[in-house]
């Protein structure tokens, strides 16, 4: 029976590892590392099911090559982190897809992440509330144990606007998931930045608001944000050993 799954497992491994190599060549090392790790695991699963000895040798050689490259990336990234020189840039082209929050942030939401800071001057319209909520949901679904999310944004001076009530509802909802949402307002905030207390800093030119409006309520990309077209923007990723701490 395992033999029937071999072509599918092998195809999945090839697809993931091809993506890893593409990301590697684009210097998107953290994303490449995640894909290498996933692809290697798929090849290991394939190896267990293979009966042919010559194929086993072939898979072992492939696995060793990819593992060596993954270790090189890890060592290179760790060296840059230690020196405080880590910088990675991701360019999101106009109308491109494949940049859901899960896809974009996945490489950075491990390693003991418990606290997140979001600085974005524009969280005041309905679609922006949903973007922020979707980001929080992504953190909830991840393997990390986030306990506190800080949001710093500008206050909508229109008293009839839904900003205060919408954010209060998100805060209440997160509280039910044992996550504290701390909301602060600033009249001088301009830059957009997301900080994780595991050292990662992600600066997105458009903040979380880089998705285009869907073409229709029943069009592809309305529900799955990996299929949603994006506005052109740049993502800069840094790493620092000095992170913010919760004020006491």
TrEMBL record:
* Annotated SUPFAM superfamilies: MIT domain (SSF116846)
Where is each MIT domain found?
6-84
Q: Which domain of life is it from?
A: Eukaryota
Membrane-traversing stretches: none
Q: What is this protein called?
A: MIT domain-containing protein
Q: Which organism is it from?
A: Phoxinus phoxinus
């Amino acid at each position: 029976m395992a033999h029937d799954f071999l072509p599918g497992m092998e195809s999945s491994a090839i697809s993931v590892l091809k993506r890893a190599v593409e990301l590697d060549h684009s210097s998107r090392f953290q994303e490449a590392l995640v894909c290498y790790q996933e692809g290697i695991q798929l090849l290991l699963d394939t190896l267990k099911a293979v009966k042919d000895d010559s194929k086993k040798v072939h898979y072992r050689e492939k696995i060793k090559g990819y593992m060596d490259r993954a270790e090189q990336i890890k060592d290179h990234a760790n060296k840059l982190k230690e020196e405080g020189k880590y910088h990675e840039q991701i360019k999101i082209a106009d109308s491109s897809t494949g940049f859901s929050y899960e896809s974009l942030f996945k490489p950075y939401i491990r390693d003991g992440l418990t606290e997140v800071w979001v600085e974005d001057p524009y969280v005041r319209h309905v679609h922006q509330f949903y973007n922020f909520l979707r980001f929080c949901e992504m953190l909830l679904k991840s393997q990390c144990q986030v306990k506190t999310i800080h949001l710093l944004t500008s206050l909508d001076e229109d008293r009839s606007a839904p900003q205060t009530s919408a954010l209060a509802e998100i805060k209440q909802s997160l509280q039910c998931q044992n996550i504290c949402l701390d909301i602060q307002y600033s009249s001088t905030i301009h830059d957009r930045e997301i900080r994780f207390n595991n050292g990662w800093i992600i600066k997105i030119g458009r903040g979380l608001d880089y998705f285009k409006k869907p073409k229709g309520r029943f069009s592809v990309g309305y529900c799955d944000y990996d299929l949603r077209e994006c506005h052109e923007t740049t993502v800069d990723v840094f790493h620092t050993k000095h992170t913010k701490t919760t004020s006491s």
